[in-house]
Amino acid sequence: GAVVSQHPSRVICKSGTSVKIECRSLDFQATTMFWYRQFPKQSLMLMATSNEGSKATYEQGVEKDKFLINHASLTLSTLTVTSAHPEDSSFYICSARDPGQNNSPLHFGNGTRLTVT
Amino acid sequence: GDSVTQMEGPVTLSEEAFLTINCTYTATGYPSLFWYVQYPGEGLQLLLKATKADDKGSNKGFEATYRKETTSFHLEKGSVQVSDSAVYFCALAEGSGNTPLVFGKGTRLSVIA
């Protein structure tokens, strides 16, 4: 079945540095990928929609200069957290839908636990 | 806008107990409905789905029926196991194109032996 791979699974970085998270669709091409953020004991909040070959669409309240999204190919989207601060510590999850399947659900990566010290 | 409301957890059950997690939704259109499960430290896995009224999604002993009249999609399982301990998310998606999911807040289930 469709698989979405996310890397790294965990990352610890120092305040002020940048972190890149990769999301790959392994056996299908995804023109659109979605990036979610999950706070402890809370639901998943949609951050942005990543569009292959064009600019990402950000949800209200999400800083696009802080969370840079690049969807350079049909199988790869990256989220870069720039100048990270402790409040950026969270669980980030990407997802994509296989366009080749009717009514395909969203497939999720295993998430990236970011800790900013 | 669209929204999903789930019963608040945590829910603690003994093994072999009956499980119900309530989920209701509001949507402008005719959404597809999903239940996802998140095991500790992992991402989300699709548990089951339903795309139209009266559809029943089922998987691994879990079931949920799309009830348009009550705008509900309650998750049930007749006999839970310790391995079912996880967080369960109800979600909806409008249309069939590339639309994101709208999630409920999640319900943490703990099953004790």
Question: Can you summarize this structure?
Answer:
The complex is a heterodimer of chains A (117) and B (113). By secondary structure, chain A is mainly beta. Helix content of chain A is 0%, strand content 52%.
How much β-strand is present in the residues of chain A?
Answer: over 45%
Q: Can you tell me the residue ranges of chain A where pLDDT is under 50 for at least 5 consecutive residues?
A: none
Rg on CA atoms of chain A, Å: 14 Å
Number of strands of chain B: 12
- Please give the largest β-sheet of chain B: 6 strands, mixed
Largest interface: A-B, 24 and 23 residues
> How far is the first residue's CA from the last residue's CA of chain B?
41 Å
Q: Indicate the structural class of chain A.
A: mainly beta
Main sheet overview of chain A = 7 strands, mixed
Number of helices of chain B: 0
Helix/strand-derived category of chain B reads: mainly beta
Q: Give, in order, the helices and strands of chain B.
A: EEEEEEEEEEEE
Q: Please, what is the average pLDDT of chain B?
A: 93
Task: Give the quaternary arrangement of the chains.
Answer: heterodimer
Q: Determine the fraction of residues in helical runs of chain B and give it as a percent range.
A: under 10%
Give a count of the beta strands of chain A, DSSP E runs of length 2 or more: 11
Task: From the structure above, extract its key features.
heterodimer, A: 117 residues, mainly beta, seven-stranded mixed β-sheet, 52% strand, globular, B: 113 residues, six-stranded mixed β-sheet, 12 strands, 0% helix
What does this structure look like?
The complex is a heterodimer of chains A (117) and B (113). With 117 residues, chain A is mainly beta. Chain A has no helices and 11 strands. Chain A has strands at residues 4-7, 10-13, 19-25, 32-38, 44-51, 57-58, 67-73, 76-81, 90-97, 106-108, 112-116. In chain A, strand 5 and strand 6 form a beta hairpin. The radius of gyration of chain A is 14 Å and the shape is globular. In chain B, the strands form 3 sheets. In chain B, strands 2, 5, 6, 10, 11 and 12 form a 6-stranded mixed sheet that branches. Chain B has a 4-stranded antiparallel sheet with strand order 3-9-8-7, with no helix packed on it. Chain B is globular. Chain B is an all-beta fold. The interface between A and B is medium-sized, with 24 and 23 residues.
